[in-house]
Amino acid sequence: MPYTDRQNRVCGYLDIEENENSGKFFRRYFMLEPRTSQLFYYMDNPLNLPKGSAPVGALNMTYVSKVNDASRIRPKAEYCFVINGCDRRYYLQANDAQDMMEWIDKLNDSCKIIVPPASTMSQDDSTFRPGRSNSEKTISYKTEVIGGVVVRTPIHTGDSDSDSSDGTGHTNTLPARLSSPSNLHRRRSGCMPIKQGFCVKQGAVMKNWKRRFFILDDHGFSYYKNENDKDAIRTIAIRDMLDCKESTLGDTLLRDNLFEVSTISRTFYIQADSPEEMQSWISSVCGAIMAKRASVATNTWTL
Known about the structure:
alpha+beta; PH-domain like; 5 helices; 2 domains; eight-stranded antiparallel β-sheet
């Protein structure tokens, strides 16, 4: 679900069809800046990227006519909606129906924002594309996204100029819904996952943050490098867990949606993609802990 961060920006993950009509969607982290009505999207949450990483692309919402449900236009793309820009349509996929409607509402609200003064627009635009002279700012441009890169083409010349990106990196970040290890996990562990999905975890030694795919089942809380890995990096046994709750260190660590899993030997700090996801993980993990304790108590009483 979209959430508002500490800088009053609307943030969250969506899948975007970067090349129009390609039918291929890629997972991106979106950030809507209400002050300038700019919608930026990144390879991942900027907190998880190297410092100074540029956005993959950007849209000026003041030039968008409408954002609406696109389920009839793209029946095969679940929870799909469209941003109708001045030069093309941008198709995006949400996680579920409620997520889609919330994004549509927030993006439509941003379209109503009054266009900032010319001086503000020039400053923001030159920040996003460094090195441009003042004379270039008066030229009319056609804006489009090609291969995940914002390309602005001067109408009178036809030449293109693209922002920097990591080039080939985006093809490795496929939506979780397209490929899931749940069936593989079931064959390996003998049980179906209680909950699964991507989160960001703090490392034990270097204290760096890395995106991992988590699976919770009746036996443990496992995390993998990606959703297709056969072997978990680590599995935290349910019997070793003491508690799972929202962390009080969110402000200290500068992490939204932070929760912690306490074990006998260590506390794991994990960041969810939204407040709703955080609460869902906490509820699921706490439920698994209580079920395990009840099972142990029953077996002990029977003996």
